[in-house]
Amino acid sequence: MKAPITPHFSGAMLPAKAPLLTRTGWSAFVIALIVVCAVAPLLNLWVPEGGAFHLSTYAVALLGKIMCYAMVALAMDLIWGYTGILSLGHGVFFALGGYAMGMYLMRQIGSDGNYKSALPDFMVFLDWKTLPWHWTFSDSFFATLVLIVGVPALVAFVFGYFAFRSRIKGVYFSIITQAMTFAAMLLFFRNETGFGGNNGFTDFKRILSIPIATPSMRMLLFVITGLTLLGFFLFAKWLVSSKFGRVLQAIRDAETRVMFSGYNPVGYKLAIWVISAVMCGVAGALYVPQVGIINPGEMSPANSIEMAIWVAVGGRASLVGPIAGAFIVNGAKSWLTVAYPEYWLYFLGLLFIAMTLFLPQGVVGLAKNLRKGNAE
Fold first, then answer.
1. CA distance 333 to 115
2. Is the distance from CB of 291 to CB of 105 less than 8 angstroms?
3. Which end of the chain is more exposed for a tag (fewer CB within 10 A), N or C?
4. pTM greater than 0.70 (yes/no)
5. Structural domain boundaries in the chain
6. Are 67 and 229 in contact (CB under 8 A)?
């Protein structure tokens, strides 16, 4: 009797793991890093204001704001583009991070407010004598950093746990996320909640006891925002390239088959939902000191819908696309709201319809098709 033949795999070659970025991708990344850390500070702080290459303070603030929006678009792409879950409530996570930072900045005002009180001006106006309990650690920068991450993560975990366990998906999930952000907006509009009512927080003076309105501090915030965006991009790229990311994409394409393969989609969807919320919270925290205000309007359903439009315009499931979409849409918005303010919303609606009908893969998809056409 012959001995059974044992397969021999010593010569088998497993495919090499793909690099995080291609050579072209790393080149673009390094260029972006140089622009953020060297070129922009040089043009803003060293080139005279009358110079042709001077980067104005307004441009620095605008670009910093759009980079915050780009982080949100990146977070939306992880949950929508790669997992297939359309959220219309991510504005609430952005605002929660912003309010956590805003509370700290309000405490940094100290007695320099209009009423010369240690309490924020709106509390003095409402005749409050002490800080509410949820302001207890608002004077600590370290505690603020914990809240910026922890509060959006906690809200996302609680909401996502019950939503995903209940197997709510599709348009129903989108509707309840929109209801969530609308309810949060109504809550923060109320004066008794201690978040400044419809005026929110503004008139910030300092951060870490350093004046916030100086050119050097504004540029520092710009650089930190740019580095955070680039860091989030690398993190997202690593995440979607990992086994975790491949499972997310399988859930997007065929969730039932994923379940039959022995994976529990709930845990994966909850994890990426919380990660996406934390990214939005960090973006909101960086947004507030650069823009100078945070109010409940940031939680409006329209803002969350606009976030989805950034991703659709740039191209879902591409990472670079949502970043490009945020810059394209918000750059156009900053120009149109000045030149043609009454037509901005019409333009936004037409843009979304046009992208859905004619460019479902967004700007990135169009660029890929053009490259293929040129190659042929």
1. 37
2. no
3. N
4. yes
5. 54-298
6. yes
